[in-house]
Amino acid sequence: MAMPIPILCFVGRSNSGKTTLIERLIPELVLAGYRVATVKHTGHGFDLDTEGKDSWRHKRAGASTVMVLSKGSLAMFSDVSDEIKVEELRDRFLDRSIDLIIAEGWKNEGYPKVVVLRDELGEVPLSLEGLLAVVSNKPVTLPVPCIDPDDIKGLSDLIVKHFPKRRTEV
Q1: What residues in the chain have per-residue pLDDT under 50?
Q2: Closest of 106, 140, 144, 110 to residue 123, by C-alpha
Q3: pTM (2 decimals)?
Q4: Domains of the chain, with CATH numbers?
Q5: What whole-number distance in Å separates Cα of residue 158 and Cα of residue 137?
């Protein structure tokens, strides 16, 4: 059985810059040959389906899962329990050719993590368990690398070193 796709969580307060950092990191990882999937956890609800569209109509009619497929794209709207875990999403839905899952959130799940700090350490309840790095614009004294938010290449290099690619190109 193949090794499961590794999961790396980016955690930090709201508006600490997690999404922007991930957005800047993905092209660097892609350049290094990685296929990346992202999963975002949000504390508040969301609705991506558009009122009036067929998928919205199916969901409103009572379907618990609606999938929309077009050439090259797949979207799914599904009812889930509140406590769904990233590995459950990985094992049920993700293409096995993915090299790394970047999860935004899930700070208490025990996955390797990068903590994103805007100004100071006290922002995030910090457990050193699984801590790979801290991304901060101020120096932080911890036994892990502290990377400047603009050092995307440095962060990418650290991730590539920690999560070697799972497959070889043919």
Answers
A1: 169-170
A2: 140
A3: 0.82
A4: 7-45+83-162 (3.40.50.300)
A5: 18
